[in-house]
Structure formats: C-alpha cells, structure tokens
User: Fold this.
Amino acid sequence: MLTNTRNLRIEWGDCDPAGIVFFPRYFAMFDTSTTYLMERAIGMSKFDYLKAYNFLGHPIVETHARFRVPTRFGDEVAIETAVAACGRSSIKIEHRLTKAGVLAVEGFETRVFVARDPADPERLKSQPIPPEVLARLVA
Amino acid sequence: MLTNTRNLRIEWGDCDPAGIVFFPRYFAMFDTSTTYLMERAIGMSKFDYLKAYNFLGHPIVETHARFRVPTRFGDEVAIETAVAACGRSSIKIEHRLTKAGVLAVEGFETRVFVARDPADPERLKSQPIPPEVLARLVA
Amino acid sequence: MLTNTRNLRIEWGDCDPAGIVFFPRYFAMFDTSTTYLMERAIGMSKFDYLKAYNFLGHPIVETHARFRVPTRFGDEVAIETAVAACGRSSIKIEHRLTKAGVLAVEGFETRVFVARDPADPERLKSQPIPPEVLARLVA
Amino acid sequence: MLTNTRNLRIEWGDCDPAGIVFFPRYFAMFDTSTTYLMERAIGMSKFDYLKAYNFLGHPIVETHARFRVPTRFGDEVAIETAVAACGRSSIKIEHRLTKAGVLAVEGFETRVFVARDPADPERLKSQPIPPEVLARLVA
Assistant:
C-alpha cells in the first residue's frame, strides 16, 4: 500500500490557551497529508486530478483519532500516512503523527470520491476510483 | 445526563473549494458545544471554571465522527450535545448535528480534565472531576 | 448607508497560547459580518445571491485593522458593520468590534465583485454591482 | 534590517468555495513568518524566547494588507518577511507573498511586546525589546 511521510512544525496559531494544539488543527494537517498521498498516487496536483477525473473532491465520511501525547508550538513533528484499504469508490487512510519518534496522534479516515450529480447539481454522487489510480494506491 | 442544544449557521469561511464544510471545522463547532455544556453543568464561564478548579483544560483524548450529509454555507444547523458517560477524571460526550431535522454529522469524544504537573510544568496531569461538577454532569 | 450589528462570543478555539484572540480569527468574523450585510442588502442568502447574479464571490482586495483592546474566550462582543462607500464593482466596508461598549477592533475592507472570466475560467473578472443591489447598499 | 524567506504551498483547507485562499489564512501564514523572523533574530524558538524574556507574546496592534493576485490550492508561494522599523517596545514588519515571482499579497504589521501586568494578571503590559534582540532585529 502507498505511504507518504512529511515533516512540519506546530505553530503558535495552531495552539489554544492551554498552549497545546487545538485538536481540529490536527485534522487539517491530516487532510493535507491525504492530499500529498493522493497526488503521489495519481501523479498530478489535486487541482489537476480533480479536473482530470471530474471529481469534486474526496470528502471524509468517517474519522477516528486518538490523541496520546500533546504537542505545542515549536514542536517538529512527522506525519506518516498510508492507504489501509481501497474499495470501489472509497478509501481508508491512516495517519501517525510522531514527535521525536514518539507516537502523539493516530488518525483513521474513510473517504469517498464524489462528483456533482448531473441530475441535481446540489447533490454529491459517489464515483468509482479510476482503475489506474486504484492500482497505484494499493501497489 | 446533561444535554445542550445550540443553533448556528455554516459560513463561507467554514467551507472548502467543493462548497461544503471543511470537516475540521465541525470539530471546532463541537468543541464550542462542549464548552457550552460544561458551562451549563458548572454554572460558570470556561474562563472562570478553569481558574476556580485550577484546570488547564479538558483536552480530547479520542474522537470519532461520521459525516452523513454534507452542509454548505448558509445552512442553518442545530447541534445537540449530551454527556454519555463520566469517569473519575474523564468524560464522554456525544454531538448530533442536524440540518432541517436530518442527522448530518455525529461526533463522539472522550476528554480528560488536566492541570499542569507541579513537578514538571511542561507536563499535563489528569485531575479528578470535582464531585459537585460530576453530580451536575450526570444529573 | 446600510449597517448591520451582530453579537457573538469569543471561543476557546479562537484564542492562542497568550489566551487572547489569534488575530486572523477577527478577519473570519468580519467576513461573516460582511456576508450578513450583503444578504440584508440583497434580500437573499449568499448561496442564492451568488447564483442569482452569477458572482463567484466578493474577495477582499485591501484591508486594514487596528487592535485596541484584546479579547479572550468567553467575551461577548458586538460587531457593527457598515457600508462606507460603493463604486461600480467595488465596495468599502467598516467593522467595529466592541466589548462591553468599548471599541476593541476596527476593520476596514475593500471588496470587488467577481465572476469567472468566460475567456479563461482560471481567471477572475470584476463585475459591476447590479443597480438594484447598489441602491440598497447606499440607501 | 533582518529578513527571512520561506516557501509554502497553499492547501485545499486554506481555500473557500470560490477555490481561492480564504484571506484570513494569509494572516495566519504571515504570523508564522513573523515567528520565524523573530526566532532568527533572537536565536531561540518562540517557546523558549517567550520564557527567556518573560514575554506573553507580541500581539498585532495594526495591520494592513493588499491582495493583488489570488492564489489557490496547490500554488507554491514564497513569503519574504522583513523588519521595517523598531521602536522601544514595538516593531513594524512587512511581508511579500509571491507566486512564480509575481507579487500576490503584501502585508504590513505593527506588533508590541507584552507581558502580564503584575498588578493585574488580566491585563497585558507593553515591555521594552531587550537591547540585544533589538540590535539583531535592526542589524
């Protein structure tokens, strides 16, 4: 299964009055990591692959996270992201955020690829993952 | 068990290029709903109850969410928040975000009350929930 | 000129490790206040007026703000928003955020109404404000 | 005067339903750039220099920005940050965000160094910039 790791720093504006990360910010970091993983699988930027495949996006349908060790501004962290499973139009992704090698946050997410429903542009409709993308995600 | 409901509107800045909520924003909304629930239980603002009980906060240790129906800017939604269980220093809380009566997002969270560790101010230490607060949370 | 006032509360997640608002959050609050003002002027939700007039949005081209008094989580504040001037395709808007009647933040912004350029959908093109909208903005 | 440049990518979660950056996010980016500049001047992480000098932070008292060219998710941008002027307890900083060498956003900010007022811990009190820090900022 495809994996990707990136390093980032926790910043002042990510943190709350307790001086630690305001936890919704972890989900924004994971969202970016998922983008990087998808871009690597597809070989295009998200802007380009959404257009190329006529996707509106790949919104989250379920997520689960465990926060084991707090992080604070200035902390250098790594996020390892991996495909855990792939279905016809959905994908399971896991994130491990570590600080100095210690597991700080685990995130699990299920996403579904969607397009606008041609019959009703107000609605989203799930879309099959193109075979060549699927092949690279589970390679 | 204590419950609380609040109404809010999804705003432009909560939404992503697909025109729907950027999902980390739901967690920020839930965080505020938890604050309102705690304030109601304790009878003080968060600013005041953190000081009164010498808590640094009540960070999340685990969360789980299901996103069933997308919401977009301009949507009026309601968030019902309820205590699901209380332990010695931890609390389980559930959120149900509805749009026009339809369940759009479910969130489950476990939080732990913490203070700075007097032996090491860089560390957080779990704290027992004061008995009078516990009594009101599970009333 | 049209004005609008709304009340809101500063929340934990709006604040930084100094315990006061992380200033970019004020701009998100002002953005929502501008939306409310526009909706009031046009008599439609933003979702509806963007579609009705084929606007992509009304992005900011310039802003200026003065932060006079800090606010912190739990503070109840009011934001008064007013049209300061209107041009052919641009509008100047002013915000005054007060806490207990004291001016805490002043914001000034210039926005321009835009659509996608039909000749190049990657580009934005300024659009004249429709006369009936202009009439209500400066009424 | 001290300067600093950093590269970053505009992400999906930074953008709004028009597909371009939600402008408050630029201020969060500038805030991080200011932190990097200060860390370089002082030779310590922000976490460390706030403690070393007993500062609570260096909040913004005034800002001004011009948005010339929109950016969207996937855009690689550079932010050049420079000290423009230094006073006894305040500093003026300028940011230039460029995309492919083209100036997209200019930001100007004035910050003041503060500590908690010992006479009233609810209040912030401006603090002189330590001489050795001042020397490096204007070097």
Observations:
- DSSP finds three helices and seven strands in chain A.
- The two ends of chain A are 5 Å apart (CA to CA).
- The mean pLDDT of chain A is 95.
- The longest strand of chain A covers residues 76-86.
